[in-house]
Amino acid sequence: MTAIEQTEAARPRGTRLPRRARRNQLLGAAQEVFVAQGYHAAAMDDIAERAGVSKPVLYQHFPGKLDLYLALLDQHCEALIQAVRRALESTTDNKQRVRATMDAYFAYVEDEGGAFRLVFESDLTNEPAVRERVDKVTNECAEAICDVIAEDTGLSRAESMLLASGLGGLAQVVARSWLHSDRSVPREQAVQLLASLAWRGIAGFPLHGSEHH
């Protein structure tokens, strides 16, 4: 039984939820359906049934399926952006920063709700509003990494952004590959391997102002 089903079972029929709580409940149900079925195969009927509400209740909160999908994307794109920022701010040791950032991506894809599939494996990337959000999460994560690289190395913003995009792309692709391989390597070990690879590359750019620069 899912968390949503357990909540529904525990609550007497006819109980009215506060608007924010209802919205969160609907988003949770929608996430389950979209992750399992993909955008195109999912139906508002399925989402309403999963949430235990009528379709009119669902439409009171979200005018259509795309609105619901975009609300989920906004939520989960922001979650990754914030996770990367927290990782970068967690230490001033750059080697540990690299590791923490790699781990943030692994934690994101490993989340049991499967939200990363909506962001990185969407079947709706031809929709401009979806593409905009996916590009935003990629760019904002890269910008956060770029800030650290530019400050520490003295490289130009453009050069730092290229390196940051490479690190972010590496983390995202490898984390997804690791998950799809059924986590054949323990997460801790996988993160360490990737962090070592990334660090050996980025450490080749000396700190700004150091005697080796």
TrEMBL record:
DNA-binding residues per UniProt? 43-62
- Keyword Chloroplast in annotation: no
Q: What's the domain of life for this entry? A: Bacteria
Q: Which keywords does the record carry?
A: DNA-binding
Taken from the record, one Pfam family name reads: TetR_C_32
Q: Where is the HTH tetR-type domain positioned along the sequence? A: 20-80
Q: What is this protein called?
A: TetR/AcrR family transcriptional regulator
